[in-house]
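Subject: design request, 244 residues
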């Protein structure tokens, strides 16, 4: 993930149409409404909230009474987020980099849509999850909608594939791109780990990790998954697959 690529993709023109295309379009509206309901539940006890990769600030502006802050890497997205949320801290920041003063600060830490997919490797994704863990308060919640490789590909991709050799073949995820015809914008080579592997990654940092499925937007469809992590560990327990 290069900053210049994010800035070029999420420019002023793209930011202006982002909500209508990805949050309010009939195909996406059901998921957006589900996420708003979930956020309301997570914030019901008066929790403070950090939204990581906040985009236009769409979700933030629905909860004006909440103590909240956000970060994003796109200046164009942040300009819209500031218009919608003029009184809260909004940082232009790479989510792979820590913010020490926010350690343990937030009762809810969210990373919406599929922003984590811009990590270039599992090691970079693990750095992001470590930051989400760091910023979450000891009794807090981390919430992340997931890009399910099976839904993206339309194929039942196994997490563990059969093999005749000793050991295991683990299909830990896919790379995928979304190319928008007509304007040439490309979300290129996004990382989408398997849902099971995402659970394992978060279990390094949280005692309780749950997968929720949204209501299907149309009959015959499967609902999108989202991950909810609670019970922040004092010290992470590293997976063998993520060790460098």
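Subject: RE: design request

Done. Sequence follows.
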């Amino acid at each position: 993930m290069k900053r210049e690529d994010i800035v070029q993709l999420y420019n002023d023109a793209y930011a202006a149409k982002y909500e209508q295309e990805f949050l309010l379009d009939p195909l996406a509206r059901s998921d957006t409404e589900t996420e708003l309901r979930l956020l309301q539940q997570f914030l019901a006890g008066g929790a403070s909230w950090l939204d990581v990769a906040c985009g236009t600030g769409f979700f933030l502006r629905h909860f004006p009474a909440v103590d909240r802050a956000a970060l994003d890497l796109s200046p164009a997205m942040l300009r819209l987020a500031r218009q919608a949320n003029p009184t809260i801290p909004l940082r232009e920041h790479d989510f792979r980099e820590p913010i020490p003063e926010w350690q343990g600060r937030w009762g809810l830490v969210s990373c919406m849509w599929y922003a984590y997919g811009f990590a270039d490797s599992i090691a970079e994704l693990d750095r992001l999850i470590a930051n989400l863990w760091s910023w979450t308060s000891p009794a807090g919640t981390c919430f992340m909608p997931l890009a399910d490789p099976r839904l993206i590909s339309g194929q039942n991709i196994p997490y563990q594939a059969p093999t005749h050799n000793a050991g295991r073949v683990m299909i830990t995820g896919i790379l995928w791109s979304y190319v928008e015809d007509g304007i040439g914008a490309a979300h290129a080579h996004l990382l989408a780990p398997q849902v099971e592997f995402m659970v394992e990654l978060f279990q390094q940092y949280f005692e309780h990790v749950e997968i929720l499925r949204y209501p299907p937007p149309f009959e015959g469809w499967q609902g999108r998954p989202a991950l909810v992590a609670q019970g922040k560990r004092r010290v992470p327990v590293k997976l063998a697959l993520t060790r460098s």
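The helical segments are 3-9, 12-22, 26-43, 75-84, 122-135, 149-153, 195-203.
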